[in-house]
Amino acid sequence: MDPDSVSPRSRHSTGVRLLVAATALWAAFLALDLLANGRWWFWLIPGLAPPLLFLAVPVTLLALAWTLPAAGSGLRRWLVPTAVLLLVAALPRTGLNWSAPAPGSAAAPAGPGIRVFSWNTEYWDTTDDPDAFYRFLHAQDADVYLLQEYLAWVRGTHTQIDELDRIRREFPGYQVVAAGELVTLSRFPVLATPAVGPAVAADAPWSEVFTRRKVLRTDLDVRGRAVSFYNVHIPVQVDTRESVFGRAFYRVVREADAARREQFAALERDTAANSRPLLVAGDFNTSPAMGDLDRLRARLHDARAASGDLYPGSWGGILGADWWRLDWAFTNDGAAVDHYAFVDDRGMSDHRGQQLRISLPHRGQDRCRWHVLESWCARHPRHP
User: Fold this and answer.
1) Burial class (CB in 10 A: 0-12, 13-18, 19+), 91
2) Residue 107 within any structural domain of the chain
3) Number of structural domains, the chain?
4) Are residues 140 and 58 in the same domain?
5) Which residues have C-beta within 8 Å of that of residue 77, sequence separation ≥ 6?
6) Most Cβ neighbours (<10 Å): which of 2, 91, 147, 168?
7) Smallest Cα–Cα separation from 87: which of 54, 48, 47, 46?
8) Is residue 108 included in any domain, yes or no?
9) Using CB atoms within 10 A of its CB, is residue 308 exposed (0-12), middle (13-18) or buried (19+)?
Protein backbone atom coordinates (compact mmCIF):
# COMPACT_ATOMS: atom_id res chain seq x y z
CA MET A 1 0.00 0.00 0.00
CA ASP A 2 1.21 3.48 -0.84
CA PRO A 3 1.93 5.34 2.46
CA ASP A 4 0.46 8.50 0.91
CA SER A 5 -2.87 6.70 0.49
CA VAL A 6 -3.21 6.13 4.25
CA SER A 7 -5.62 8.68 5.67
CA PRO A 8 -4.57 11.02 8.50
CA ARG A 9 -7.44 9.57 10.56
CA SER A 10 -6.07 6.05 10.12
CA ARG A 11 -2.57 7.16 11.12
CA HIS A 12 -4.04 8.94 14.15
CA SER A 13 -5.96 5.82 15.20
CA THR A 14 -2.80 3.72 14.93
CA GLY A 15 -0.86 6.24 17.02
CA VAL A 16 -3.54 6.31 19.69
CA ARG A 17 -3.64 2.52 19.87
CA LEU A 18 0.15 2.45 20.25
CA LEU A 19 -0.02 5.05 23.02
CA VAL A 20 -2.71 3.09 24.88
CA ALA A 21 -0.68 -0.10 24.49
CA ALA A 22 2.52 1.59 25.72
CA THR A 23 0.68 3.02 28.73
CA ALA A 24 -0.76 -0.39 29.58
CA LEU A 25 2.63 -2.08 29.22
CA TRP A 26 4.33 0.47 31.45
CA ALA A 27 1.55 0.13 34.05
CA ALA A 28 2.02 -3.66 33.99
CA PHE A 29 5.79 -3.25 34.37
CA LEU A 30 5.36 -0.96 37.38
CA ALA A 31 2.91 -3.40 38.95
CA LEU A 32 5.44 -6.21 38.54
CA ASP A 33 8.16 -3.96 39.89
CA LEU A 34 6.07 -3.24 42.98
CA LEU A 35 5.57 -6.97 43.57
CA ALA A 36 8.97 -8.37 42.57
CA ASN A 37 11.59 -5.69 43.16
CA GLY A 38 13.76 -6.74 46.07
CA ARG A 39 11.82 -10.00 46.48
CA TRP A 40 12.47 -12.12 43.36
CA TRP A 41 16.01 -12.89 42.23
CA PHE A 42 15.15 -12.49 38.53
CA TRP A 43 14.14 -8.84 39.05
CA LEU A 44 17.80 -7.98 39.61
CA ILE A 45 18.05 -8.03 35.80
CA PRO A 46 15.36 -5.39 35.04
CA GLY A 47 16.85 -3.50 38.00
CA LEU A 48 19.98 -2.90 35.92
CA ALA A 49 18.11 -0.27 33.89
CA PRO A 50 19.15 3.37 34.44
CA PRO A 51 16.94 4.81 37.20
CA LEU A 52 16.11 7.85 35.07
CA LEU A 53 14.13 5.49 32.84
CA PHE A 54 11.48 5.61 35.58
CA LEU A 55 11.21 9.33 34.90
CA ALA A 56 11.63 9.38 31.12
CA VAL A 57 8.94 6.83 30.26
CA PRO A 58 5.98 8.29 32.21
CA VAL A 59 6.95 11.86 31.24
CA THR A 60 6.96 10.80 27.57
CA LEU A 61 3.58 9.08 27.95
CA LEU A 62 2.19 12.15 29.67
CA ALA A 63 3.47 14.47 26.93
CA LEU A 64 1.99 12.30 24.18
CA ALA A 65 -1.36 12.01 25.97
CA TRP A 66 -1.48 15.77 26.55
CA THR A 67 -0.96 16.52 22.87
CA LEU A 68 -3.79 14.31 21.63
CA PRO A 69 -6.05 16.35 19.30
CA ALA A 70 -9.53 17.46 20.23
CA ALA A 71 -10.99 14.44 18.48
CA GLY A 72 -9.38 12.28 21.10
CA SER A 73 -10.32 14.48 24.07
CA GLY A 74 -12.33 11.71 25.71
CA LEU A 75 -9.35 9.40 25.58
CA ARG A 76 -7.05 12.20 26.71
CA ARG A 77 -9.15 12.71 29.86
CA TRP A 78 -8.35 9.10 30.71
CA LEU A 79 -4.73 8.87 29.55
CA VAL A 80 -3.42 12.09 31.14
CA PRO A 81 -4.36 11.27 34.76
CA THR A 82 -3.18 7.69 34.19
CA ALA A 83 0.22 8.95 33.05
CA VAL A 84 0.37 11.30 36.05
CA LEU A 85 -0.34 8.41 38.43
CA LEU A 86 2.32 6.28 36.73
CA LEU A 87 4.80 9.13 37.09
CA VAL A 88 4.07 9.55 40.80
CA ALA A 89 4.36 5.79 41.35
CA ALA A 90 7.74 5.68 39.59
CA LEU A 91 9.34 8.73 41.26
CA PRO A 92 10.84 6.81 44.23
CA ARG A 93 12.89 4.73 41.75
CA THR A 94 14.30 7.68 39.80
CA GLY A 95 17.08 8.55 42.23
CA LEU A 96 16.28 12.26 42.09
CA ASN A 97 17.49 14.28 45.06
CA TRP A 98 14.62 16.51 46.16
CA SER A 99 16.87 18.24 48.71
CA ALA A 100 19.19 19.55 45.97
CA PRO A 101 17.69 23.07 45.76
CA ALA A 102 18.61 23.62 49.42
CA PRO A 103 21.05 20.89 50.51
CA GLY A 104 21.73 20.51 54.18
CA SER A 105 21.98 18.01 56.97
CA ALA A 106 19.08 16.89 59.07
CA ALA A 107 20.52 18.51 62.16
CA ALA A 108 22.59 21.56 62.96
CA PRO A 109 26.36 20.89 63.06
CA ALA A 110 27.47 20.19 66.59
CA GLY A 111 31.16 20.32 67.41
CA PRO A 112 34.05 19.63 65.04
CA GLY A 113 33.13 17.56 62.03
CA ILE A 114 34.46 14.17 61.00
CA ARG A 115 35.75 13.98 57.43
CA VAL A 116 35.04 10.62 55.77
CA PHE A 117 36.02 9.31 52.36
CA SER A 118 34.44 6.12 50.98
CA TRP A 119 35.61 4.67 47.66
CA ASN A 120 35.63 1.51 45.58
CA THR A 121 39.24 1.67 44.41
CA GLU A 122 38.83 -0.87 41.56
CA TYR A 123 41.67 -3.26 42.35
CA TRP A 124 43.52 -0.87 44.65
CA ASP A 125 46.60 0.54 42.91
CA THR A 126 47.31 -2.53 40.77
CA THR A 127 45.96 -0.91 37.59
CA ASP A 128 47.21 2.62 38.33
CA ASP A 129 50.38 4.51 39.09
CA PRO A 130 50.76 3.62 42.80
CA ASP A 131 52.22 7.00 43.70
CA ALA A 132 49.33 8.83 41.99
CA PHE A 133 46.91 6.50 43.76
CA TYR A 134 48.22 7.39 47.20
CA ARG A 135 48.43 11.08 46.33
CA PHE A 136 44.74 10.95 45.47
CA LEU A 137 43.93 9.37 48.83
CA HIS A 138 46.05 11.93 50.69
CA ALA A 139 44.27 14.75 48.86
CA GLN A 140 40.98 13.73 50.50
CA ASP A 141 42.47 14.53 53.96
CA ALA A 142 39.87 12.33 55.64
CA ASP A 143 39.73 11.36 59.29
CA VAL A 144 38.23 8.01 58.28
CA TYR A 145 38.70 6.15 54.99
CA LEU A 146 36.31 3.35 54.02
CA LEU A 147 37.94 1.64 51.05
CA GLN A 148 36.81 -1.33 48.98
CA GLU A 149 38.54 -3.69 46.52
CA TYR A 150 41.84 -4.03 48.34
CA LEU A 151 42.82 -6.80 45.92
CA ALA A 152 44.04 -7.50 42.37
CA TRP A 153 42.56 -9.14 39.28
CA VAL A 154 44.99 -11.81 38.12
CA ARG A 155 44.29 -14.43 35.43
CA GLY A 156 40.55 -13.95 35.65
CA THR A 157 40.16 -14.15 39.41
CA HIS A 158 40.25 -11.95 42.52
CA THR A 159 43.66 -12.21 44.14
CA GLN A 160 45.00 -11.18 47.53
CA ILE A 161 47.55 -8.38 47.77
CA ASP A 162 49.76 -7.29 50.67
CA GLU A 163 50.27 -3.54 50.90
CA LEU A 164 49.57 -3.01 54.59
CA ASP A 165 53.17 -1.96 55.27
CA ARG A 166 52.97 0.73 52.61
CA ILE A 167 49.54 1.84 53.81
CA ARG A 168 50.95 2.34 57.31
CA ARG A 169 53.90 4.28 55.92
CA GLU A 170 51.64 6.45 53.80
CA PHE A 171 49.24 7.12 56.68
CA PRO A 172 51.28 7.49 59.88
CA GLY A 173 49.11 8.04 62.91
CA TYR A 174 46.16 6.15 61.38
CA GLN A 175 44.76 2.90 62.72
CA VAL A 176 44.46 0.29 59.92
CA VAL A 177 41.77 -2.40 59.93
CA ALA A 178 41.58 -4.87 57.04
CA ALA A 179 39.35 -7.85 56.30
CA GLY A 180 39.33 -9.50 52.90
CA GLU A 181 38.92 -6.72 50.34
CA LEU A 182 37.85 -4.06 52.86
CA VAL A 183 40.22 -1.57 54.49
CA THR A 184 39.30 1.10 57.04
CA LEU A 185 41.79 3.79 58.05
CA SER A 186 41.14 5.96 61.08
CA ARG A 187 42.79 8.88 62.85
CA PHE A 188 40.70 7.90 65.86
CA PRO A 189 41.49 4.98 68.20
CA VAL A 190 39.82 1.69 67.34
CA LEU A 191 37.62 0.36 70.14
CA ALA A 192 36.37 -2.85 68.52
CA THR A 193 35.69 -4.57 65.20
CA PRO A 194 32.47 -6.57 65.75
CA ALA A 195 31.78 -9.15 63.06
CA VAL A 196 28.81 -8.47 60.78
CA GLY A 197 27.44 -11.15 58.50
CA PRO A 198 28.23 -14.82 58.01
CA ALA A 199 30.63 -16.39 60.49
CA VAL A 200 34.20 -16.69 59.25
CA ALA A 201 36.86 -18.64 61.16
CA ALA A 202 39.85 -16.68 62.37
CA ASP A 203 42.17 -18.90 60.33
CA ALA A 204 39.98 -18.96 57.21
CA PRO A 205 41.83 -18.49 53.89
CA TRP A 206 41.68 -15.07 52.27
CA SER A 207 39.38 -16.31 49.49
CA GLU A 208 36.73 -17.28 52.05
CA VAL A 209 37.05 -13.99 53.92
CA PHE A 210 36.77 -12.12 50.63
CA THR A 211 33.61 -14.01 49.67
CA ARG A 212 31.82 -13.81 53.03
CA ARG A 213 33.02 -10.59 54.72
CA LYS A 214 31.32 -7.81 52.79
CA VAL A 215 30.68 -5.56 55.77
CA LEU A 216 33.52 -4.34 57.98
CA ARG A 217 32.30 -2.62 61.15
CA THR A 218 34.82 -0.56 63.09
CA ASP A 219 33.88 1.15 66.35
CA LEU A 220 35.99 4.25 66.95
CA ASP A 221 36.60 6.55 69.88
CA VAL A 222 35.72 9.90 68.32
CA ARG A 223 36.67 12.56 70.83
CA GLY A 224 35.32 10.55 73.72
CA ARG A 225 32.25 9.13 71.96
CA ALA A 226 31.95 5.64 70.51
CA VAL A 227 30.89 5.79 66.84
CA SER A 228 30.39 2.85 64.47
CA PHE A 229 31.60 2.97 60.87
CA TYR A 230 30.40 0.30 58.43
CA ASN A 231 32.54 -0.27 55.34
CA VAL A 232 30.33 -2.05 52.77
CA HIS A 233 30.75 -3.80 49.43
CA ILE A 234 27.65 -5.77 48.45
CA PRO A 235 28.30 -8.49 45.80
CA VAL A 236 27.57 -7.55 42.20
CA GLN A 237 24.47 -9.23 40.73
CA VAL A 238 25.67 -10.27 37.27
CA ASP A 239 28.75 -11.67 35.56
CA THR A 240 29.17 -9.79 32.29
CA ARG A 241 31.50 -12.50 31.00
CA GLU A 242 28.54 -14.87 30.73
CA SER A 243 26.08 -14.76 27.84
CA VAL A 244 22.50 -13.78 28.67
CA PHE A 245 21.45 -16.71 26.47
CA GLY A 246 23.22 -19.26 28.66
CA ARG A 247 22.15 -20.90 31.91
CA ALA A 248 25.33 -19.81 33.67
CA PHE A 249 24.29 -16.16 33.50
CA TYR A 250 21.04 -16.79 35.39
CA ARG A 251 22.70 -19.19 37.83
CA VAL A 252 25.12 -16.40 38.76
CA VAL A 253 22.23 -13.95 39.25
CA ARG A 254 20.39 -16.38 41.50
CA GLU A 255 23.49 -17.14 43.58
CA ALA A 256 24.34 -13.45 43.78
CA ASP A 257 20.82 -12.67 44.99
CA ALA A 258 21.21 -15.16 47.86
CA ALA A 259 24.60 -13.70 48.82
CA ARG A 260 23.29 -10.14 48.63
CA ARG A 261 20.26 -10.95 50.78
CA GLU A 262 22.51 -12.51 53.41
CA GLN A 263 24.71 -9.41 53.58
CA PHE A 264 21.79 -6.96 53.58
CA ALA A 265 19.99 -8.90 56.32
CA ALA A 266 23.09 -8.95 58.51
CA LEU A 267 23.68 -5.23 57.97
CA GLU A 268 20.04 -4.40 58.75
CA ARG A 269 20.09 -6.49 61.95
CA ASP A 270 23.35 -5.03 63.18
CA THR A 271 22.48 -1.39 62.53
CA ALA A 272 19.03 -1.86 64.09
CA ALA A 273 20.61 -3.21 67.27
CA ASN A 274 23.34 -0.56 67.40
CA SER A 275 22.41 2.40 69.61
CA ARG A 276 25.66 4.26 68.90
CA PRO A 277 25.96 7.00 66.30
CA LEU A 278 26.80 5.26 63.04
CA LEU A 279 27.73 5.76 59.41
CA VAL A 280 27.18 3.10 56.75
CA ALA A 281 28.98 3.75 53.46
CA GLY A 282 30.38 1.91 50.48
CA ASP A 283 29.62 0.28 47.15
CA PHE A 284 26.21 -1.38 47.40
CA ASN A 285 26.01 -2.41 43.73
CA THR A 286 22.41 -1.27 44.07
CA SER A 287 20.76 1.60 42.21
CA PRO A 288 17.71 3.63 43.30
CA ALA A 289 15.69 1.55 40.83
CA MET A 290 16.30 -1.58 42.92
CA GLY A 291 14.32 -2.52 46.02
CA ASP A 292 17.19 -4.20 47.87
CA LEU A 293 17.93 -1.03 49.85
CA ASP A 294 14.34 -0.15 50.68
CA ARG A 295 14.39 -1.44 54.27
CA LEU A 296 17.70 0.23 55.08
CA ARG A 297 16.62 3.50 53.44
CA ALA A 298 13.35 3.46 55.39
CA ARG A 299 15.15 3.30 58.76
CA LEU A 300 18.37 5.26 58.19
CA HIS A 301 19.02 8.70 56.72
CA ASP A 302 20.40 8.96 53.18
CA ALA A 303 23.37 11.34 53.02
CA ARG A 304 22.13 12.73 49.70
CA ALA A 305 20.05 15.27 51.65
CA ALA A 306 23.35 17.14 52.16
CA SER A 307 24.20 17.04 48.45
CA GLY A 308 23.63 19.77 45.89
CA ASP A 309 23.27 17.31 43.00
CA LEU A 310 19.77 16.87 41.62
CA TYR A 311 20.75 13.46 40.28
CA PRO A 312 23.72 12.07 42.26
CA GLY A 313 25.44 9.37 40.20
CA SER A 314 28.58 7.43 41.04
CA TRP A 315 29.00 4.85 38.26
CA GLY A 316 28.52 4.50 34.53
CA GLY A 317 30.63 7.02 32.68
CA ILE A 318 28.38 6.81 29.59
CA LEU A 319 28.19 9.92 27.38
CA GLY A 320 30.12 11.82 30.01
CA ALA A 321 27.64 11.15 32.83
CA ASP A 322 27.28 8.65 35.67
CA TRP A 323 23.76 7.31 35.21
CA TRP A 324 23.72 4.97 38.20
CA ARG A 325 24.17 5.64 41.89
CA LEU A 326 25.70 2.44 43.25
CA ASP A 327 27.55 4.05 46.16
CA TRP A 328 25.57 5.12 49.22
CA ALA A 329 26.03 6.57 52.69
CA PHE A 330 23.58 6.44 55.60
CA THR A 331 23.48 7.64 59.19
CA ASN A 332 21.18 7.02 62.13
CA ASP A 333 19.74 9.66 64.46
CA GLY A 334 23.04 9.90 66.34
CA ALA A 335 24.98 11.37 63.41
CA ALA A 336 24.23 14.10 60.88
CA VAL A 337 25.78 14.68 57.45
CA ASP A 338 26.78 18.30 56.90
CA HIS A 339 28.43 17.79 53.49
CA TYR A 340 28.08 15.06 50.87
CA ALA A 341 29.54 14.95 47.37
CA PHE A 342 30.83 12.52 44.77
CA VAL A 343 34.40 13.31 43.71
CA ASP A 344 36.17 12.59 40.44
CA ASP A 345 38.11 9.32 40.56
CA ARG A 346 40.73 10.72 38.15
CA GLY A 347 40.51 7.66 35.96
CA MET A 348 41.66 5.28 38.69
CA SER A 349 38.32 3.56 39.27
CA ASP A 350 34.95 2.99 37.67
CA HIS A 351 33.38 4.50 40.81
CA ARG A 352 33.45 8.05 42.04
CA GLY A 353 34.42 8.53 45.67
CA GLN A 354 32.01 9.63 48.40
CA GLN A 355 33.21 12.64 50.38
CA LEU A 356 31.36 13.34 53.62
CA ARG A 357 31.51 15.53 56.67
CA ILE A 358 29.50 14.25 59.61
CA SER A 359 28.83 15.74 63.02
CA LEU A 360 27.53 14.25 66.23
CA PRO A 361 24.56 16.18 67.63
CA HIS A 362 24.70 16.75 71.36
CA ARG A 363 23.03 14.06 73.40
CA GLY A 364 19.34 14.84 73.58
CA GLN A 365 19.35 17.09 70.52
CA ASP A 366 16.29 16.48 68.39
CA ARG A 367 16.74 15.22 64.83
CA CYS A 368 14.12 15.58 62.15
CA ARG A 369 13.21 12.15 60.81
CA TRP A 370 11.34 13.09 57.66
CA HIS A 371 13.62 13.10 54.62
CA VAL A 372 11.46 15.56 52.72
CA LEU A 373 11.98 18.09 55.55
CA GLU A 374 15.70 17.47 56.14
CA SER A 375 16.87 20.67 54.44
CA TRP A 376 14.31 22.74 56.35
CA CYS A 377 15.36 21.14 59.62
CA ALA A 378 18.98 21.99 58.93
CA ARG A 379 18.04 25.66 58.76
CA HIS A 380 15.56 25.53 61.68
CA PRO A 381 17.13 23.27 64.35
CA ARG A 382 15.19 22.60 67.51
CA HIS A 383 16.89 22.25 70.87
CA PRO A 384 15.52 20.68 74.03
Assistant:
1) middle
2) no
3) 2
4) no
5) none
6) 147
7) 54
8) no
9) middle
